[in-house]
User: Which sequence fits this backbone?
């Protein structure tokens, strides 16, 4: 479809730059460069935007903002890191408050070099981003068309990298609520995940060979502990989570009860689990920053 | 027929007398429900029975009637005198002395010579008014049962429980209203008129707080001023024509009846709280909500415009008519503007009531067939929708302990049923294709046909109307801070009244062609020999619009499928699960929104001051012009 | 049959014409700022893209209001081009706009909330003038029916010069153009983000866009009505008025809401009501 190619709307965010790249980015809108001839609109609103243009290195303050803005953009979306700082942290890389380039918070698709990046380079980056956007849209549309053909299978160790990538995307909202350091799924490494395969059962939801959801659980005497029932944000709200949960519950036929532990501030998830038949039995502090809720369901 | 009318008048009186002695809640419930049912059945029978204009002769000897009426008059005058003296309110004392003196002199001097062929009469207009009084009023009485219980037990424990008096007065008022509607004998009409004034006075002062007492006295003296005008009108007309009948007055030539008609319009304007008298209605909002709903929006204030519309044929195309129309037009504009500036729900409703009554007065002043037709429609639709709104506000006030519109933010989530009913009521007040809009449309057409320059009032006033209703609707719909839903939103009586009225708001629109062709058009036809209607094609279009609006709730079946819910945009600094943001230096800021009240543009005090001055001038001019 | 032809044409061609007008608008604005500007078809590309984006909402009900906004705007334009009652058309338009505003309120975001309030202020500002326009046309043609007004033999603008000017003024507000783009601006960053449309994305935003196209065509149709006796002049005048609106959009900075209401009402009183007063005085003589 021509739409995506011809109408890339951007939102521009300055993470913590010297303003050099910002000025150059805005210069693209001036009569000399006039990016509107390509259909580019600087929306200033994540809900309308397709392309997230970030300038400057990411510091502790801007981390949550970047995550929030990214979260609020509708799929399909693309991130462009403009300038050396946004790409790698640049000359601020070693600063006490800088955690690096944009890719230390959200996945970046296009890197634009330069200090400051020249308008021509930025325009070039946006044009490349449009390509990524179209490709992503096509992939999503394909999956979306076949969502009813989703297969729910046991996952193998070879799926671990894909599951980890999904986990990283799916738990972003939690990072906003609890802080990134307090969300274990975001801290997990590939090795740890692969080790989990030895003691836990994994299931996955797959369309066209692409993984869009997963859940895991392990038997613990008479009870089974389920965890990390997750679906890619774009495909949430279509019943995939429900089927995943059913699938993982069926993986433990002999147990008397099922348990899930989640954070107490995840209200939507709590409500969802209660609709699935789970009851909150106990609330207790787990780390200084978080409190967990234990949910419980009897098996017939 | 005569029996039915007498029953409708006397049964509520009797019920009122009984209720005064009933202290048990259960017994009161049964009695109120039974009488309400009886009155509703009575009015519906009245609707079904074929009615032309009929004059009913009195079955009793005339002399006894006149003695009885005199006795009631003197009793009421004495009570008012007592109130006036006790409150040290010289104006009230002066007004009641003048009025009572005049009436007593009149009774002794002329009372026996008067020709009154029929004391009661009924026509289509009276039937409509009776239906509103019976059905809407009955609904409010049911609502009041639960409301007053909560009022005394929960919301206002400090106020003395005088419920027997309260319910007795509600029913006495209802009886008086029926009497007012059916009376043809001008003296009777006046007695019932004063009776509603008294009921209103006592009910406004129900809580006995200083504010309530003050406002009640204000309502009393303003209405007494109208009563005095009424008395003068009766004396003048009867001396000139030798007849004491309303129908004769209406049928008289302007040359003979212009001054009485002008004075009656003056009385109507005080009763329906037009400028310069609108302040009593705003003050009356201290009364418990059922009183506001019954007396001060759907029935008693309608008595004022009822009288003005009755006078319409006499004052049409005269200077008096023009003055009345101007008062109506000005009050409409000022009332609508003032409604923008206030955030107190009942005050907004009161201003809107004043404004809508003003439209009816405007119609009466124009006095063409089309205008009267539009005016009667306005009475019907306004009574239903406004009453619904008052009742909903009453419920919300009890549950949320506030009647500030700002406090109703998120009502759709906290009290979904009441919120939806309120939205229906508000849509009924200003949106196509609901009743009020149909009538406003009719008014606009009538005004443009009669005198286009007056339309300037309507166009500005109605745009202000749009603003204050829509922003209130928005306040109900936005959910900034999701809170706990309120448990048990509505008690039985309340839900009967509120759901019933919401259904009536819809039905009044659906059956609008029927109402118009069966009741309003015959009445207008009878008075003017011609009538008006909206035209077939337009009705079909209204129907289509109705279908679209009805489709709207149906679309919610697909509620929220295939969408992803995210937080609102907050400059990227949202705080989790709460509309707030992280401010500078890590401080937590909550986002607060308030409606616009445009107080920099419309100043309530300024508006009402100049409104009072202008309208008082107009009224004075009206009387002078009529004199000449 | 001739009754229905304009209606069918409107329903079919309306969005295309409206989209092209929007494209021209952006192109002409760009040229005024010595830029090249986007292609004429750009609005269509935008809407096409928006239709394929994910639907993000803050409150689940919010998009239904927008759907009904679109439906009612089409209905309004349909009524107009089917030649029905002008007052009814105005009421339908109001209903549509109220749906839009309520949608923004439902979205429960501070930005869309203020956008909605300001949209209401704008409605309050233009409504008197629009109603006076209908009344003025009635006074000349003795009918509220669009069909009859269009069939009236004389050039309405000659009898209603004040009302015509006032109507053009109201159009500035109705088109949401500077200096009256209080509720939501077409141009880059502003203090309200995107005002009333802030929380609408994807298909809902596309619907809003299409509704505006329909609305613009209908409003220009109304401009045509002033010149209906000479059809060619009418079309030229509508396009000229549209050009004028774009010109004003580029020349003026935004006004505050108070100035907006005061200005619009002063114009309605002086030009609109003045015209009506003059007409009725003439009539009496």
Assistant:
């Amino acid at each position: 479809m021509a739409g995506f190619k011809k109408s890339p709307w951007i939102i521009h965010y300055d993470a913590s730059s010297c303003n050099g790249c910002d000025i150059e980015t805005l210069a693209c809108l001036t009569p000399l460069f006039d990016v509107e001839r390509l259909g580019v609109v600087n929306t200033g609103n994540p809900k309308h935007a397709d392309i997230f243009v970030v300038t400057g290195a990411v510091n502790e303050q801007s981390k949550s903002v970047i995550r929030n803005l990214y979260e609020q953009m509708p799929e399909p979306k693309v991130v462009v890191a403009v300038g050396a700082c946004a790409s790698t942290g640049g000359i601020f890389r070693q600063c006490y408050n800088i955690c690096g380039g944009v890719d230390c918070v959200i996945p970046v698709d296009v890197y634009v070099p330069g200090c400051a990046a020249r308008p021509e380079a930025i325009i070039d980056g946006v044009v490349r981003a449009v390509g990524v956007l179209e490709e992503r849209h096509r992939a999503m549309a394909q999956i979306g068309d076949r969502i009813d053909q989703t297969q729910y299978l046991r996952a193998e160790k070879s799926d671990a990298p894909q599951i980890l990538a999904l986990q990283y995307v799916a738990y972003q909202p939690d990072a906003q609520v609890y802080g990134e350091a307090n969300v274990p799924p975001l801290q997990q490494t590939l090795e740890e995940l692969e080790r989990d395969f030895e003691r836990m059962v994994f299931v996955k939801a797959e369309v066209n060979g692409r993984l869009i959801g997963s859940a895991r659980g392990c038997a613990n005497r008479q009870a089974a502990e389920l965890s990390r029932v997750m679906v890619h944000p774009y495909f949430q709200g279509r019943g995939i989570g429900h089927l995943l949960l059913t699938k993982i519950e069926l993986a433990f036929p002999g147990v008397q009860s099922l348990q899930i532990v989640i954070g107490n501030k995840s209200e939507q998830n709590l409500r969802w689990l209660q609709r699935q038949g789970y009851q909150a039995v106990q609330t207790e502090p787990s780390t200084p920053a978080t409190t967990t809720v234990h949910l419980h369901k009897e098996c017939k | 027929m005569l029996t039915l009318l007498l029953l409708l008048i006397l049964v509520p009186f009797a019920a009122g007398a009984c209720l005064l002695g009933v202290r048990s809640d259960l017994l009161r419930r049964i009695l109120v429900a039974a009488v309400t049912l009886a009155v509703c059945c009575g009015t519906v029978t009245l609707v079904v029975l074929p009615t032309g204009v009929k004059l009913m002769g009195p079955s009793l000897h005339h002399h006894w009637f006149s003695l009885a009426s005199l006795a009631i008059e003197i009793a009421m005058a004495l009570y008012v005198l007592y109130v006036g003296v006790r409150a040290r309110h010289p104006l009230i004392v002066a007004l009641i002395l003048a009025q009572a003196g005049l009436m007593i002199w009149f009774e002794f001097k002329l009372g026996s010579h008067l020709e009154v062929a029929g004391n009661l009469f009924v026509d289509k207009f009276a039937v409509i008014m009776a239906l509103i009084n019976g059905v809407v009023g009955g609904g409010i009485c049911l609502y009041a049962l639960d409301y007053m219980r909560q009022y005394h037990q929960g919301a206002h424990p400090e106020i003395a429980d005088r419920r027997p008096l309260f319910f007795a007065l509600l029913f006495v008022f209802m009886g008086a209203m029926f009497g007012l509607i059916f009376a043809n004998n001008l003296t009777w009409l006046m007695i019932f008129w004063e009776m509603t004034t008294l009921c209103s006075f006592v009910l406004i002062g129900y809580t006995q707080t200083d504010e309530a007492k003050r406002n009640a006295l204000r309502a009393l003296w303003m209405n007494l001023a109208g009563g005095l005008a009424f008395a003068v009108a009766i004396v003048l007309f009867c001396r000139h024509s030798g007849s004491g009948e309303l129908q004769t007055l209406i049928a008289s030539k302007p040359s003979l009846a212009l001054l009485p008609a002008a004075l009656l319009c003056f009385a109507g304007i005080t009763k329906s709280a037009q400028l310069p008298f609108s302040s009593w209605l705003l003050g009356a909002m201290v009364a418990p909500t059922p009183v506001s709903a019954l007396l001060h929006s759907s029935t008693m204030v309608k008595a004022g415009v009822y009288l003005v519309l009755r006078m319409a044929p006499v004052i049409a195309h005269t200077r008096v008519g023009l003055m009345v129309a101007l008062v109506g037009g000005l009050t409409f504009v000022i009332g609508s503007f003032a409604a923008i500036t206030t955030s107190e729900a009942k005050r907004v409703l009161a201003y809107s009531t004043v404004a809508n009554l003003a439209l009816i007065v405007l119609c009466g002043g124009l006095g063409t067939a089309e205008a009267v037709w539009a005016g009667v429609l306005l009475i019907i639709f306004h009574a239903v929708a406004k009453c619904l709104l008052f009742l909903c506000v009453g419920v919300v006030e009890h549950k949320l302990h506030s009647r500030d519109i700002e406090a109703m933010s998120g009502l759709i989530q906290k009290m979904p049923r009441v919120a939806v009913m309120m939205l229906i009521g508000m849509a009924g007040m200003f949106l196509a294709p609901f009743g009020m809009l149909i009538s406003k449309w009719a008014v606009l057409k009538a005004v443009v046909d009669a005198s286009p320059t007056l339309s300037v009032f309507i166009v500005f006033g109605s745009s202000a109307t749009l603003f204050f209703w829509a922003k209130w609707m928005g306040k109900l719909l936005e959910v900034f801070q999701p809170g706990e839903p309120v448990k048990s939103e509505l008690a039985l009586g309340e839900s009967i009244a509120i759901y019933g009225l919401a259904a009536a708001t819809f039905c009044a629109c659906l059956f609008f062609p029927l109402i118009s062709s069966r009741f309003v058009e015959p009445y207008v036809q009878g008075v003017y020999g011609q009538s008006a209607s909206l035209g077939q094609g337009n009705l079909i279009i209204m129907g289509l619009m109705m279908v679209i609006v009805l489709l709207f709730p149906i679309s919610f079946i697909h509620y929220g499928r295939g969408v992803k819910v995210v937080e609102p945009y907050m400059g990227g600094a949202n705080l989790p699960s709460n509309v707030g943001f992280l401010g500078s230096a890590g401080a937590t800021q909550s986002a607060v929104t308030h409606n616009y009240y445009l107080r920099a543009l419309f100043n309530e005090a300024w508006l009402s001051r100049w409104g009072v001055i202008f309208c008082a001038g107009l009224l004075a001019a009206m009387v002078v012009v009529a004199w000449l | 049959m001739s009754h229905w032809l304009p209606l069918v044409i409107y329903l079919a061609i309306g969005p295309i014409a409206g989209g092209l007008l929007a494209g021209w608008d952006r192109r002409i604005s760009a040229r005024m700022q010595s830029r090249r500007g986007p292609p004429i078809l750009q609005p269509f590309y935008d809407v096409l893209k928006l239709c394929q984006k994910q639907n993000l909402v803050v409150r689940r009900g919010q998009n239904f209001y927008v759907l009904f906004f679109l439906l009612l705007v089409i209905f309004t334009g349909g009524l107009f081009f089917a030649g029905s009652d002008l007052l009814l058309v105005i009421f339908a338009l109001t209903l549509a706009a109220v749906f839009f505003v309520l949608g923004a309120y439902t979205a429960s975001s501070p930005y869309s909330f203020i956008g909605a309030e300001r949209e209401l202020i704008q409605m309050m500002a233009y409504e008197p003038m629009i109603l006076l326009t209908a009344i003025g046309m009635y006074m000349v043609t003795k009918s509220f029916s669009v069909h009859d007004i269009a069939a009236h033999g004389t050039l309405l603008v000659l009898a209603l010069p004040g009302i015509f000017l006032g109507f053009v003024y109201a159009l500035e507000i109705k088109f949401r153009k500077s200096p009256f783009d209080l509720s939501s601006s077409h141009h880059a960053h502003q203090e309200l983000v995107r005002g009333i449309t802030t929380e609408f994305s994807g298909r809902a935003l596309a619907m809003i866009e299409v509704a505006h196209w329909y609305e613009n065509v209908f409003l220009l149709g109304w401009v045509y009505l002033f010149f209906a006796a000479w059809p060619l002049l009418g079309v030229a005048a509508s396009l000229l008025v549209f050009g004028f609106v774009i010109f004003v959009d580029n020349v003026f900075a935004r006004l505050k809401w108070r100035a907006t209401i005061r200005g619009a009402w002063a114009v309605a009183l002086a030009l609109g009501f003045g015209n009506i007063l003059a007409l009725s005085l003439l009539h009496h003589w």
User: Anything to note?
Assistant: Chain B has a mean pLDDT of 86.
